[in-house]
Design goal:
By secondary structure, this protein is an alpha/beta fold. Helices cover 33% and strands 18% of the residues. A seven-stranded mixed beta sheet has the order 6-7-8-3-9-10-11, sandwiched between helices. Strands 2-1-4-5 form a four-stranded antiparallel beta sheet, with helices on one face. A hairpin with a 2-residue loop joins strand 9 and strand 10. Pfam families: ABC_tran (PF00005), oligo_HPY (PF08352). GO terms for molecular function: ATP binding; ATP hydrolysis activity.
Length: 348
């Protein structure tokens, strides 16, 4: 097992690995909304419905939530692939410019890693061509062969020349994902957005890819937004976690704080189904979220186990849960929760 394939260890959050809280954000989303008009008069789907989020240099953030909560739409809007209906995305302190030339330059600094390496790679292209594609699109004027070899090597495919003429079907799933990562690294980006980066991989390979992402952060100072429904993955890789529900971030903070002592009932429900979680799994009531029918008040209240059990009524906040929308959480690194019940428990 090579150095980049070592399993994850418990010191993944060593103080030197995460940026200090005073570091200015690399990427910022402010009041971000993305809505999609319904067909034939159907209601508008509010896929992203008010999000503030900061990502600092060298920081790994896990964006977690169940399918349909808006994670991928938020990620695509941060990449400039979906233009927000309202709000803005800023990179390096400057608002994102949606002109073709500006977006091309931006995507050289912010790269996407998709969950399915087989679908991301053209089966007719060799590994060399797959990795070199970004260089050719961006008019790279340096030594292409050296850049491709360096990217493959950093992604853990060594010696890189051995893989140049290979085709995707000749590689394992883990090797294909490393090729996808190399294709993102070849342009030397400052931030990668990884959408379910290990969801399609065998359990034996997942740890290798996560360890690779951590090593790239340590060696290159790379920032990452990792989109996932897997809280175990978030625990293993992230400095900070943002829990998303029905288009909005409902809890955020340091990963140890949020996943060890979750405050929002939705986060508690997500954690309760993990194999190692104490007690019985929380069974949510109501229908799965529908972004075209966001309820009044707290958007989670129709499925909330705290409201369903009568605990919110006893705490005197049931009416607020049904009628008062908690404010959009700030984008910073402090622990925050959009929940009337959780806030009622805080002294003072």
């Amino acid at each position: 097992m090579s150095e980049d394939q070592q399993p994850l260890t418990e010191d993944r959050h060593a103080p030197a690995s995460a940026p200090p809280d005073t570091t200015p954000p690399l990427l910022t989303a402010e009041g971000l909304h993305v809505a999609f008009p319904g067909r034939q008069g159907a209601p508008t789907a509010r896929a992203v419905d008010g999000v503030d989020l900061d990502i600092r240099p060298g920081e790994i953030i896990a964006l977690v939530g169940e399918s349909g909560c808006g994670k991928t739409t938020l990620a695509r809007s941060l990449l400039g692939l979906v233009r927000p209906t309202a709000g803005r995305v800023s990179f390096g302190g400057k608002p994102l410019d949606y002109s073709s030339r500006a977006l091309k330059a931006y995507r050289g600094r912010v790269q996407l890693v998709l969950q399915d390496p087989s679908g991301s790679l053209n089966p007719r292209h060799t590994v060399y061509d797959a990795v070199a594609e970004g260089l050719r699109i961006h008019g790279y004027a340096g030594d292409e062969r050296a850049a491709v070899a360096g990217a493959l090597s950093r992604a853990g495919l060594r010696p890189p020349e051995r893989f140049f003429l290979s085709y995707p079907h000749e590689l394992s799933g883990g090797q294909r994902q490393r090729v996808v990562i190399a294709g993102a690294l070849v342009l030397e980006p400052e931030l990668i957005v990884a959408d379910e980066p290990v969801a399609s991989l065998d359990a034996s390979v997942r740890g290798e890819i996560l360890a690779l992402l951590l090593r790239l952060r340590a060696e290159l100072g790379l920032s990452a937004l990792v989109v996932t429904h897997d809280l175990g993955l978030a625990w293993n890789i992230a400095d900070r976690v943002a829990v998303m529900y029905l288009g909005r971030i409902v809890e955020t903070g340091a990963v140890e704080q949020v996943l060890s002592a979750p405050q929002h009932p939705y986060t508690q429900a997500l954690l309760s189904v993990l194999p190692e979680a104490p007690g019985d799994p929380v069974v949510l009531t109501g229908e799965p979220p529908d972004p075209s029918r966001v309820p009044t008040g707290c958007r989670f209240h129709v499925r909330c186990q705290i409201l369903a059990s009568g605990e919110a009524e006893r705490a005197g906040i049931a009416s607020a849960c049904r009628n008062e929308d908690p404010a959009v959480l700030g984008g910073g690194s402090g622990e925050q929760v959009a929940c009337h019940w959780a806030r009622a428990k805080v002294p003072g």
